[in-house]
């Protein structure tokens, strides 16, 4: 029996279905049974597919549960369900950029959104890798300026704002204490050091937790070296002991 | 095993009584291991012991982005797969031919003479000769120097108080899959990265003689290893469907060297010392090489067997080994720290692996055991691409967190 889709869905199922009926909330339940003589024991159950109408591209998730298959080994293994990522704009293992056109140009923001959604989906529901339709999407097809506009610029604005505020206040403070104006401060070596610290601090420490993170990072970079040097620490002790 | 055999062979040209305790109890890793060209050449390994030549690798990211690696390999380059039982037997036989005495025994403990006295070490071991069965008979032996090559759970290391190391647990199932599916793995190995497969390592499907080995490993979440293994099986599900598990094995893999590797006239080599690289978990080549270096240092320090060595001679071996391979270890450590951190870092890693230059550099350093600085312009481009990949993956990660909330 072919699955009947509710009229509001433009997408199609590419898999066979054997039974379906409608829900009042336009949800569909369809069957998919796949017999696998594999090393996975499966529970026999029915499949459920939910359709969510979202603002973006419609995404249909199919939960497939294999029925009891031949158990060919003594190890009982669970993992009985396979959920597959499906999206009308995801074709042939990559995003179909033609479908992301908005006003004649590709809407890169939507591509970034779609990829983030796909990765989130797969992180929560890991999926078997496939050889007939391998994923070949590469994030470098999204041009650099799309990334800059979306991620770098807002953060740069924030950091520059912070640096400006700190700079203004420090200039005023130093001026009030020493009477040196802004132009003369820039010529002073000590003030230049303060400037460097201020800029570096604003860039590296963006949240309170960053201080701890930086300390841990520094320890991490030298930890492996210390482990390798451990045998040499005893060098001096051994020599003095043998004397 | 590999370490001590090569040590014995290294000593063949001098007046040495090379004794070998080859313990049946430490039959150890009966897993097929990757072998590199450098090892085949340097240790004159016959090509018959290589079961398979892998020339294609697939790296699969957490979101199943698949990247093919191996385009840059030349026709004579490959990653050889061997079975440890075959390799170890070969090395043992070669050691015997070189003049070593191989004893099938289990090292129990040893009595160390006071430091600097020049007296001999007394080793207590169980000998398993073919006539007696079961537990073997207790024996003793007096030796001038001891090279501990008894693997990750080394008793020699315990005897000299070498200290502990963090270790990863590598878990592997050998799966016999139908011939049609085996065709895909004829010369292809796969590596899966992702939090589901391992939080700090990778899962793999390596082809062996007539079956595949599906496995994964972890340092930090050892109790979840079964879950990681199930996830690895899921990721490879379609490709190993219909397979039957014929063997299950697990082994500890050291993460860093022991705090003490040499004490008086006892030295550790190979896994006993902890010479396993990060990121790729490679240890066999370094085990064999360290064994050889240690033996060469002993031969040299004793002036071809004419005088007693002391600790300084063994430290020469340490110095040489550390100096030669430190860059390799450090680079792999940095790679692991940067690229195995999180799913987004792993996505960036797989993306980077698609680049030809990266593949060439990786294989050159893996196959020939050299960290080769390439063309500086290409290196700069590589650095920029790396940063780009990491930044993009990080940005996507931020989107993902935003979606979750």
Task: Describe the 3D structure.
The complex is a heterodimer of chains A (243) and B (405). With 243 residues, chain A is an alpha+beta fold. Chain A contains 6 helices and 9 strands. Chain A has helices at 108-124, 144-178, 182-187, 189-204, 209-233, 235-242; strands spanning 20-22, 28-30, 48-52, 59-65, 81-84, 90-91, 94-95, 101-102, 105-106. In chain A, a hairpin with a 6-residue loop joins β3 (48-52) and β4. Chain A starts with 19 loop residues before the first strand and ends with a helix. Residues 8-17 and 22-32 of chain B have low confidence and may be disordered. The radius of gyration of chain B is 22 Å and the shape is globular. Chain B has helices at 2-10, 37-42, 84-97, 155-159, 179-184, 225-235, 237-240, 270-273, 284-301, 311-339, 343-353, 356-368, 376-404, and strands at residues 19-21, 32-35, 50-54, 56-60, 66-69, 79-83, 101-103, 105-111, 121-127, 137-143, 146-148, 167-176, 188-192, 203-207, 212-218, 244-254, 262-263, 266-268. The longest helix of chain B has 29 residues, at 311-339. The relative contact order of chain B is 0.15. Chain B has 13 helices and 18 strands. Chains A and B meet through α1, α2, α5 and α6 of A and α6, α7, β16, β17 and α10 of B.
């Amino acid at each position: 029996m072919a699955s009947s889709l509710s009229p509001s869905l433009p997408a199609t199922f590419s898999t066979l279905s054997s039974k379906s009926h409608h829900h009042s909330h336009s949800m569909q339940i369809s069957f998919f049974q796949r017999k696998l003589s594999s090393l996975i024991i499966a529970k026999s159950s029915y499949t459920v597919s939910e359709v969510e109408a979202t603002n973006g591209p419609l995404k249909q998730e199919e939960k497939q549960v294999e029925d009891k298959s031949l158990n060919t080994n003594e190890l009982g293994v669970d993992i009985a369900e396979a959920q597959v990522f499906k999206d009308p704009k995801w074709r042939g293992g990559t995003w179909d950029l033609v479908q992301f056109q908005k006003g004649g140009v590709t809407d890169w923001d939507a591509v970034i959104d779609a990829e983030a959604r796909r990765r989130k989906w797969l992180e929560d529901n890991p999926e078997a890798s496939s050889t007939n339709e391998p994923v070949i999407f590469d994030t470098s097809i999204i041009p650099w300026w799309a990334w800059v506009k979306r991620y770098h610029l807002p953060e740069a604005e924030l950091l520059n704002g912070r640096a400006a505020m700190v700079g203004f206040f420090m200039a005023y403070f130093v001026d009030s204490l020493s009477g040196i104006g802004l132009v003369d401060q820039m010529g002073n070596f000590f003030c230049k050091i303060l400037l460097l610290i201020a800029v570096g601090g604003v860039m590296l420490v963006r949240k309170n937790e960053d201080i701890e993170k930086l300390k841990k990072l520094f320890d991490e970079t030298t930890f492996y070296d210390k482990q390798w040097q451990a045998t040499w620490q005893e060098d001096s002790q051994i020599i003095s002991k043998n004397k | 095993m590999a370490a001590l055999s090569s040590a014995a062979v290294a000593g063949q040209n001098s007046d040495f009584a090379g004794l070998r305790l080859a313990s049946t109890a430490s039959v150890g890793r009966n897993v097929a291991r990757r072998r590199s060209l450098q090892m085949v050449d340097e240790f004159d390994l016959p090509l018959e012991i290589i079961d398979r030549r892998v020339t294609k690798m697939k790296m699969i990211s957490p979101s199943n982005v698949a990247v093919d690696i191996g385009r840059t390999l030349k026709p004579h380059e490959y990653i050889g797969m061997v079975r440890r039982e075959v390799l170890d037997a070969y090395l043992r036989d070669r050691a015997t031919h070189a003049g070593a005495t191989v004893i099938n025994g289990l090292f129990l403990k040893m009595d160390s003479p006071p430091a600097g006295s020049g007296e001999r070490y007394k080793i207590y071991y169980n000998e398993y000769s073919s006539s007696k069965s079961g537990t073997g008979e207790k024996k003793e032996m007096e030796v001038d120097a001891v090279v501990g090559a008894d693997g990750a759970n080394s008793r020699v290391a315990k005897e000299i108080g070498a200290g502990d190391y963090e270790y990863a647990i590598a878990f592997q199932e050998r799966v016999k899959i139908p011939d049609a599916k085996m065709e895909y793995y004829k010369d292809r190995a796969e590596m899966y990265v992702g939090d589901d497969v391992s939080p700090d390592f990778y899962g793999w499907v390596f082809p062996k003689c007539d079956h595949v080995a599906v496995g994964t490993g972890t340092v930090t979440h050892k109790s979840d290893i079964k879950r990681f293994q199930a996830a690895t099986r899921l990721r490879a599900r379609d490709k190993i469907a219909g397979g039957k598990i014929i063997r299950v094995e697990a082994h500890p893999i050291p993460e860093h060297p022991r705090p003490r590797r040499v004490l008086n006239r006892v030295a550790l080599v190979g896994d006993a010392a902890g010479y396993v690289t990060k990121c790729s978990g490679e240890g066999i080549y370094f085990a064999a090489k360290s064994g050889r270096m240690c033996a060469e240092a002993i031969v040299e320090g004793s002036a071809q067997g004419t005088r007693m060595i002391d600790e300084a001679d063994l430290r020469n071996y340490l110095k040489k080994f550390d100096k030669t391979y430190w860059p390799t270890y450090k680079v792999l450590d940095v790679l692991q720290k940067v690229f195995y951190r999180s799913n987004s870092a792993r996505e960036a890693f797989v993306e980077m692996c698609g680049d030809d230059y990266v593949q060439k550099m990786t294989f050159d350093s893996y196959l020939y055991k050299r960290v080769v600085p390439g063309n500086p312009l290409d290196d700069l481009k590589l650095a920029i691409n790396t940063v780009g990949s990491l930044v993009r993956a990080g940005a996507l990660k931020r989107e993902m967190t935003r979606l979750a909330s």
